[in-house]
Design a protein that fits this description.
Thrombin, subunit H, 4 domains, six-stranded antiparallel β-barrel, globular
């Protein structure tokens, strides 16, 4: 038995030594009179401590307080006492406990990334960020993407720049089951002083799906990309308040943004998940940190989730009357087997791989039809995202009007399917400033534009290219019904 214990201890020391070598640190030397098991534990401890030290200065606590108007916020001074009303100075108080709390990670000077759901953006709130130096700063929402469940807060205090050290990103697409990971967060708001709490564990699985949530009619819905299988699962402890924290590898790099999701019925504790730091994650962060909208691709089909006879791939059920699939000659009963060479096993795979791509991007769709395989190159339209989207750098405005992909507005497809709108390629009017030249010309929200300056337009980029150099009157063609159009002249800005 003692020989087996020695061999096991020597093996552990060898593994720790290898880990230390990979991380560029010399392994702990083992003294002749020192138990080898203790040396192994000390070596692992040093690796964990170093990883936490590298990243904890980039993890902050977030307080959300309900705005009651007049500069008054609803706060809870302690967990046992009753709520009371305090002024804006409340979050600076060491005894301040917010009505809602989360974690965030620094991604730039004054910029903090967190989960969209943690901010409860449907309510009027004020946000405060506490850094590792225990300083508290007011923050505003810079950008928010409900479909990726990501949001960015911005602190505009110029004295805060030195406080914000961006967290190093790793590659969350390459994590493996069994990999040791660390989590930094703000569980139960106990890290509201800016001192992140740490936990550790392993990667339990990858490509996990968040549990569906009931929709308005009680039917299960999948409101985010994570509901289609994009999550890292970990057994590291992720309690309430750790949403928006950092999941780290042993190098101290963030490989995932933690999200503490509600427990499944019958289980006492929420599952521990993290959104992986992959290409789609980085694309979203790049958009949100400058206040731009993160768009998502739309193929324009429906499919049956209960197609039991289809082992692999997705059988197309219906084709949108106006959409990329119809234009690319994808037909009902076709079986989609790949998207950009990624195998498609079921409908969730299809939604995930299409949704990761931005609107307007090309996608190579592999289909099977009649025993033969075909490839279709599709330019994706825009998915109609549900939830609070925050854009602080708005889309280009032309003479008081902004346009968007027609598919981005849910009411458009229902009009097409009911025969009330044309199936021709077009853009849709999203907003019109009252009193602007576009408004004076009679243009209103949800109108459909098929031509601008005699040029057929199907995307916002095509529309703006058609009118970019026009300084005089511009005529746009409106599709008002199948086979019926109106011509509208928009004067230049006075």
């Amino acid at each position: 038995m003692s020989g087996m214990r020695v061999r096991r201890s020597v093996a552990v020391v060898g593994v720790i030594s290898l880990v230390a070598a990979i991380l560029g640190r010399a392994p702990v030397s083992v003294q002749a009179d020192e138990p080898t098991g203790l040396a192994a534990a000390v070596a692992l401890e040093e690796v964990l401590v170093a990883a936490i030290a590298r990243s904890e200065k980039s993890v902050v606590s977030i307080a959300r307080v309900a705005d009651k108007g007049g500069g008054v916020v609803d706060t809870q001074p302690n967990f046992l006492g009753p709520p009371r009303l305090m002024g804006p100075q409340g979050p600076q108080d060491p005894d301040f406990v917010p009505t809602s709390f989360a974690t965030g990670v620094v991604i730039g000077k004054g910029l903090v990334l967190t989960n969209h759901h943690a901010l409860a953006l449907d309510e009027k709130s004020q946000f405060y960020v506490t850094t590792v130096s225990r300083k508290v700063y007011a923050a505003e929402v810079k950008g928010a993407s409900p479909y990726t469940d990501l949001a960015v807060l911005e602190v505009k205090d110029p004295f805060a720049d030195e406080e914000f050290v961006p967290i190093p990103f790793g590659d969350g697409s390459k994590v493996r089951k069994g990999q040791i990971v660390l989590a930094l967060g703000n569980p139960y708001a106990i890290a509201r002083d800016g001192q992140a709490s740490a936990s550790w564990g392993i990667v339990a699985n990858v490509q996990r799906k968040a549990q569906t949530v009931p929709g308005e009619n009680g039917a299960p819905t999948r409101p985010t990309l994570q509901h289609f299988g994009a999550l890292i699962q970990t057994d590291a402890r992720l309690n309430l308040g750790t949403s928006g924290g950092a999941l780290l590898n042993l190098q101290g790099e963030m490989i995932g943004l933690t999200t503490s999701l509600a427990a499944v019925a019958g289980y006492e504790q929420a599952a521990g998940y993290a959104i992986p730091v992959d290409d789609a994650f980085r694309q979203t962060v790049d958009k949100l940190k400058v206040g731009e909208e993160r768009t998502h691709g739309l193929l324009g089909i429906t499919f049956r989730r209960d197609d039991g006879g289809q082992a692999n791939g997705v059988r197309v059920d219906m084709i949108y009357a106006a959409g990329p699939a119809r234009q690319a000659d994808i037909r009902p009963s076709d079986v989609i087997t790949r998207v950009n060479d990624q195998p498609i096993r079921d409908g969730d795979d299809l939604m995930l791989n299409i949704g990761r791509l931005p609107a307007g991007s090309p996608a190579r769709i592999t289909i099977e039809r009649g025993g033969r395989t075909y490839q279709r190159l599709v330019t994706l339209a825009k998915f109609p995202v549900q939830g609070k989207v925050v854009v602080t750098k708005p889309a280009a405005n032309w003479r008081g009007m902004t346009v968007d992909y027609a598919t981005a507005m849910p009411e458009y497809q229902s009009r097409v399917n009911s025969g009330e709108a044309p199936v021709d390629a077009c853009v849709i009017v999203r907003d019109v400033i009252e009193g602007s030249p576009a408004w004076e010309a009679g243009l209103r929200r949800a109108m459909l534009i098929t031509h601008a300056a005699s040029v057929r337009v199907e995307t916002p980029d095509e529309f703006h290219a058609a009118v970019a150099e026009k300084t005089a009157d511009v005529t746009v063609r409106l599709a008002v019904a199948p086979g019926k159009a109106d011509m509208v002249t928009v004067h230049p800005q006075p």
